[in-house]
Amino acid sequence: MDISLNELRQQMRLCTNCSLWETRTQVITGQGTLGAKLMLLGEAPGGHEDLVSGQAFTGEAGHQLEEFLQFINLERNQIYLTNTVKCRPTRPSDRGRYGPYANRRPKVSEIKACSYWLDQELKLLSPQLVITLGTVPLSRILGENTSLKERHGVPFFSEPYRTWIFPLFHPAAVIYNQKLKPLYWADLNRLRDFLQSQL
Ligand code: SF4
Known about the structure:
Layout: H1 5-13, E1 38-42, H2 47-53, H3 60-71, E2 79-83, E3 90-92, E4 101-103, H4 108-125, E5 129-133, H5 135-142, H6 148-151, E6 156-158, E7 163-168, H7 171-176, H8 181-198
Parallel strand pairs: 1-2, 1-5, 5-7
Antiparallel strand pairs: 3-4, 6-7
């Protein structure tokens, strides 16, 4: 029997499928409505989402999102926002902004453990387009050895998920590596054109 988005979120909040449940404050479920044609797929929640807001794409990620949405002429409520991994992956750090932890990239085992939830979201929403931010979500869709350097800015149709995928660099990676900046903005221009022609 099919379940609703709210039922899915309730189940997700109780998940202990990987060890991230031991260090999370809360599960950060996807946000948005079933009518959303677009899904924005990030890597994993950060400290602000986990400890402060309880919502996806807030804090620094929220600022990046606002800039991104403004450029492609969309409102936050037109997009379903979610992450590949739903709990914050951390490592001990004495320089963490949110407690004695820093964010880290999710492990392959954590991505696999969390696959079920993203698959359910994709099934329920059937988005026309999934915009992936960074290597983690793209590898989740295409497999572990995917090269974002080769795939960024080039949309493709995913047969297994019956949706278009548009791979982008992660905005945070662009902040740390300024060489990516012109590539990232060129990709955003392509995305804007793609949205106008396809949706
Ligand atoms: S990251 Fe995913 S699989 Fe792991 S505990 Fe959280 S919701 Fe469950």
